[in-house]
Amino acid sequence: MSSSPARDASRLPALPGILFDLDGVLTPTAEVHMRAWSTLFTDYLTEHAPDVAPYAEGDYFEYVDGKPRYDGVRSLLASRNITLPEGTPDDSPDLDTVCGLGNRKNAVFAAELRENGVTPYEGSVAFLDAAIAAGHRVAVVSSSRNAVPVLAAAGLSDRFDVVVDGLVAADDKLAGKPAPDTYLDGAQRLGLTAGQCVVVEDAQSGVEAGRAGSFGLVVGVDRGVGAEALLAYGADFVVGDLAELVDAVSSPAAASAPAAAPSAPSAPEERDTKVTDA
């Protein structure tokens, strides 16, 4: 009786598709998001709910990290038993609605991105380029509506023909992480099945999405959430930096792997690249 294939780094060459989360995996924009969320909720809770627990760094990983923006607002507010009107995505950042708070957070993020730009993780770029050279097909799957401008700011746009971001998810009515829908869509756009793809994630909700979608491998990248938490939510193994996997992925095996017939465009639709969401 044949045993199941190992779910470790040795399996990387056999899986032709690699689906990358963006913030915290390819770029350190997660740090910018963390500061923006901290600014938003520290100010809001201090002014409007001084009797509840103040915002803490652990709240980011528990309630916000990896989720669509408004879901993050709802989740954090629910943790403090606070209910606000939903509002609409067009709400002014000054409004105390779920959408207004989310838009307020995004304004802080967008300002810092414009001012300071973003430099991708050196180890992640090394892994990405080694994977492409070995014949792997790659895509970005991000909850952020800022994915396209962040990739441009990081100088990574030319590596990816497939970007499934918050704009795509909204347009195609795809459930956000921890549901697997956006990752499944990314695999389909590459012309591959979930079982032929690797999910690379730094967030609890992201690895949970990879496990829920029955992907061939789910790789956790520990940028602060903790290896134990990533493993508990579904990562097969965890690294501190993707540079650790350059040698493992540097194999021509993936280039000859069969692919399913594409059923969706391989390139993302042309979109407004204005920084509008996170």
Description:
Strand 5 (about 215-220), helix 10 and strand 6 (about 235-240) form a beta-alpha-beta unit. Helix 3 packs across helix 4 (about 100-115) and helix 9 (about 205-210) packs parallel to helix 10. Residues about 255-275 have low confidence and may be disordered. Strands 3-2-1-4-5-6 form a six-stranded parallel sheet, sandwiched between helices. The protein is globular and about 55 Å long. The chain has helices spanning about 30-50, 55-65, 70-80, 100-115, 120-135, 145-155, 165-170, 180-190, 205-210, 225-235, 245-250, and strands spanning about 15-20, 135-140, 165, 195-200, 215-220, 235-240. It is of the alpha/beta class. The protein is about 40% helix and about 10% strand.
Name its key features.
11 helices, 278 residues, single chain, globular, alpha/beta
- SSE sequence, one letter per element: EHHHHHEHEHHEHEHEH
- How many helices? The count is 11
Physical arrangement of strands within the biggest beta sheet? 3-2-1-4-5-6
Alpha-carbon distance between the termini?
48 Å
Output the radius of gyration: 18 Å
Largest sheet: 6 strands, parallel
Low-pLDDT regions: 254-277
Q: Pairing-aware structural class of the strands and helices?
A: alpha/beta
Give the fraction of residues assigned to helices. Answer: 40-55%
The proportion of residues in beta strands is 5-15%
Tell me the number of strands. 6
Mean pLDDT: 89
Coarse morphology: globular
